[in-house]
Design a protein that fits this description.
Glycosyltransferase, 16 helices, 464 residues, 52% helix, single chain
């Protein structure tokens, strides 16, 4: 007969096997890709509550633009289309995932009313780039930008998800149709950057802002406008699944994937109307650096586009097709290889391939929006390719970076850039025309959504 003591090791072994099996079948519900889910939820709530309802302008309508580092309302205020649209999109997305919180829906209603009543050009169509509350002439009809109108379409489409009334869907269609009529290139495909009145084109009088946005050529096409048009069309197709929208989304997906992305795995910046990239690679190094605004590698846009490509293909086909997934993976892998600081502790801003098969970082600032886009893109690809640990590692390390270097522990909100490279950012405005809550808000909401998905996401296959 065996003694009690001799049976103990066997009992312990059985207990360990049961525990191990049980633990494998019941994954830790408190963490997601190595981070505490409650941390993400806390930061998401903190961010959204810093903006809404604080940014609601009850005097002029729409949203306030500028707040100081301590969230004091700045004395100077302008209303740019992009900022107003992003404020609407974020409120509508928050209302979609937090339907029990009336603040977000009311904030979205407020932004929608201002956008449609005050920023639309009732004579020529399209949304104005600026609205100046204190001026006699509140808008400027001398030019319109595809970039700003893309964000208006994106915001209106997102708003239609929480308010699918015929009037809202009519605004989605009206905006889509205006882009089609005024900025789509039916010959060489894609969209032009700037819309000008015929008289201005004939006289050669291009406003300074329009010159800047088009880099001196109004028939030029660019990466940033194109990826955000694809982004807008993705959401438009979800609420208005018409053949014309499907055709245009498929066109933009193909252009971004096949014409804008290089064989090395990064996006070119500017193109002529026939999609030939603008390149300064043949110039001496000093000339390249002098003209870096027209030719460089934007690590943030590359990794953001990886997500946007997958999202567009998902909308079109129900799941990403193999080619789109391959190119999107190439974009994120190139960024992981060349754009990150050591151990994925933050993403640098710009690089340049001065020699083949190598990229040199030429701007080491770590801008807030790029960190946000990189972080949630890594979460997406960690789910798509769970067998590759780099995405999970980058996601976890970037969360550490965001908490230590970007989130303001005193006043809340995100700094403009990471403190490790830009310590003076603590004194800079929390929000301004180009900084709202769209990038960081979307990142936190996307990860919040991913963390709550119960079905495992396997690698997607070619659509049938």
């Amino acid at each position: 007969m065996k003694s009690y003591h001799s049976a103990v090791p066997l009992i312990l072994l059985i207990a360990l096997i049961v525990c191990f099996t049980d633990c494998k079948s019941k994954p830790d519900k408190t963490t997601y890709l190595g981070i505490d889910k409650s941390q993400n939820e806390t930061q998401l709530n903190n961010l959204l509550e810093n903006y809404y309802p604080r940014i609601i302008d009850t005097v002029n309508g729409g949203y306030w633009t500028n707040f100081e580092n301590d969230w004091t309302l700045s004395s100077d205020q302008e209303k740019m289309l992009v900022t107003q649209a992003r404020g609407l999109w974020t409120a509508a997305r928050a209302a979609e995932i937090f339907p029990d919180n009336p603040v977000y829906h009311l904030s979205a209603d407020h932004g929608y009313a201002f956008l449609t009543r005050h920023m639309w050009d009732s004579i020529n169509g399209g949304f104005h780039q600026l609205y100046l509350p204190g001026s006699v002439q509140k808008t400027d009809a001398s030019y319109k930008l595809a970039y700003g109108n893309a964000f208006a379409l994106y915001a209106l489409s997102q708003y239609a998800k929480i308010n699918p009334e015929p009037e809202v869907l009519a605004w989605v269609k009206k905006t889509f149709d205006w882009l089609e009529t005024n900025l789509h290139d039916s010959t060489d495909l894609g969209y032009f950057t700037v819309s000008l009145p015929k008289a201005a084109l004939t006289a050669g009088k291009v406003p300074e802002e329009a010159q800047y946005m088009s880099q001196g050529d109004v028939f030029r096409k660019d990466q940033n406008t194109s990826i955000h048009l694809m982004e807008a069309l993705t959401t438009t197709y979800q609420v208005m699944p018409e053949e014309a929208v499907k055709k245009r989304l498929a066109e933009m997906l193909s252009l971004v994937r096949d014409s804008m992305t290089t064989a090395e795995g990064y996006l070119n910046l500017l193109f002529d109307r026939r999609w030939q990239p603008v390149s300064n690679a043949a110039l001496p190094r000093e000339e390249i650096l002098k003209n870096i605004q027209v030719d460089h590698i934007s690590f943030g846009h590359n990794i953001e586009t990886a997500y946007l490509l997958v999202d567009a293909a998902q909308a079109l086909y129900g799941k990403p097709d193999s080619l789109t997934l391959q190119i999107a993976k190439k974009l994120i892998d190139h960024t992981l290889a060349w754009g990150f600081d050591k151990d994925f502790y933050g993403l640098f801003d710009k690089g340049y391939a001065f020699v083949p098969d190598s990229v040199e970082v030429i701007d080491s600032v770590k801008v807030w929006w790029a960190q946000a886009e990189a972080w949630h893109a890594c979460a997406l690809f960690a789910g798509l390719f769970p067998e590759e640990p780099a995405y999970r590692e980058a996601f976890a390390n970037m969360w550490d970076y965001i908490n230590k270097e970007l989130i303001d522990p005193q006043y809340g909100g995100w700094y403009n850039s990471g403190l490790d490279k830009s310590p003076s950012t603590v004194r800079e405005r929390k929000t301004h025309a180009w900084k709202g809550c769209y990038h960081d808000g979307r990142a936190l909401m996307q990860v919040w959504q991913y963390a709550r998905e119960t079905e495992p996401r396997a690698k997607n296959q070619e659509p049938r």
